[in-house]
């Protein structure tokens, strides 16, 4: 396989945001949800788009649901955007070196995330230049987020890359489902969310730098 482009998920793949997202979502549930689900259920949904997470947490027909949903959504996004939290977020080991190495190999690189663009770009600017990416697709750019393939298909189109020439690197079941639906070779990186999945990726890696072995395969 001649790899011409590599697309990355953001959270848990390029940036280590797991603990921050878990804490903020749990705080939001405690603050806004009267009868919260189990902590395990909250953790399971933490990487869904914020609007979807809020919708799943608030019962249909509950009093002032629309107002509370807006407040809860803003709480989650604003909490994550706080400078103190962003400063605590670190790039995954080897992330910047990997991106530079791929560029040297003339491989196009992109990001596809269910985050909103404003937050995604803040995270990326924290450890690298946004200009290194050939495309960034966020929740704001599509009608359907992952696990729907639309974000990946849009990224492929903008990259000018065929699915068979691409790798998609993710750490959740939604990532692998989306990649397979877009006919892209999927790479699962080890994380809290990558174990005991109901779908099988094409490749599994423990470290980001292992991507270089795959693109040269």
Structure, described:
This protein is of the alpha/beta class and 217 residues long. It folds into two domains: 5-16 and 90-215, 3-Layer(aba) Sandwich (Rossmann fold); 18-86. Helices cover 44% and strands 13% of the residues. The protein has ten helices and eight strands. It has helices at residues 18-32, 39-44, 50-57, 65-81, 83-88, 95-104, 117-125, 150-159, 173-181, 211-215, and strands at 5-8, 15-16, 90-91, 108-112, 135-137, 166-170, 185-189, 203-205. It has a six-stranded parallel beta sheet with strand order 5-4-1-6-7-8, sandwiched between helices. A two-stranded antiparallel ribbon has the order 2-3. Strand 4 (108-112), helix 7 (117-125) and strand 5 form a beta-alpha-beta unit. The N and C termini lie close together (7 Å). 37% of the residues are buried.
Q: Count of helical segments?
A: 10
Question: Given the C-alpha coordinates, what overall shape results?
Answer: globular
Helix content class: 40-55%
| Widest beta sheet: strand line-up | 5-4-1-6-7-8
Q: What summary fits the major beta sheet?
A: 6 strands, parallel
- Just name the CATH architecture of the largest domain: 3-Layer(aba) Sandwich
CATH superfamily annotation of the largest domain: HAD superfamily/HAD-like
What value does the Rg take, in angstroms?
A: 17 Å
Secondary structure blueprint with pairings:
Blueprint: E1 5-8, E2 15-16, H1 18-32, H2 39-44, H3 50-57, H4 65-81, H5 83-88, E3 90-91, H6 95-104, E4 108-112, H7 117-125, E5 135-137, H8 150-159, E6 166-170, H9 173-181, E7 185-189, E8 203-205, H10 211-215
Parallel strand pairs: 1-4, 1-6, 4-5, 6-7, 7-8
Antiparallel strand pairs: 2-3
